[in-house]
Amino acid sequence: MNWKNFFRTITVMWGTFLLYKTVSLSLLYSLPNLQSKSYYEFIYFLIVSLISIFIISLAKNLFASKISFSPKVTNSKKNILIFIVPFILFGIDFIGGLADIFRQPFYLIIVSFASALGAALFEEIRDRGFGTIGFDQSFPSSKWKPLIITICTSFLFSTTHYLNLLMPIAPSLEAVHQQVFYTFFMGMVFSVLTMRTGSIFYPIFFHFINNLVPWTPTSDLSSVSSWGNLLVIYGVLPLFYTLWCLRPSKMLLKKKFEN
Length: 259
Description:
By secondary structure, this protein is an all-alpha fold. It has 9 helices and no strands.
């Protein structure tokens, strides 16, 4: 176990998130009603884009590794099935919601795209990109290594959402509990895509379409849903999908994430 790399990885993942949160909350509290202004999403996109560039450079400097954005899928015939579950979880709702998005004024369509893309880029570069590389260089080789990396990155990814409680227009505690539950298993699905393709291109894509909803001042905050629905569809299904796709008999980490 390389503890130095382990703590480096956690520090950068949480540190860059806290940097984003500190900057964004400072703006939101110093400029009243900014959260309810649609142009804030462009400010948000700029903030997370700059931090994402910083994270990419850290991956090179700390781990001598590049985060891959390639859309290529090696062994496409064998790997094509890994896209079925992400499409069921995120793609069907995306297709069904497109009409609502394009009913908006053009300016708000662009705002919705900026909000969804900013979150997808920042979180996938930080968690599935930097996090996967860092934890891969932290843990010793093991047949369970891909699953361990998945659990670690998904846990750190999901728990950052508790800081949404600090926002001026904040969700309820129950809504945040549900958001953390949902994003943990969503993170596991995105980790499967990352490790099976060796790239964060597809996690970014599915994360983007999951987040793309008509913009409102609280569209980036979760609403309270049925726990039964969350447990079965967004808990059990992603869990079995992850265990199946990363099972030791079939899973081989891509060279991009190998020691």
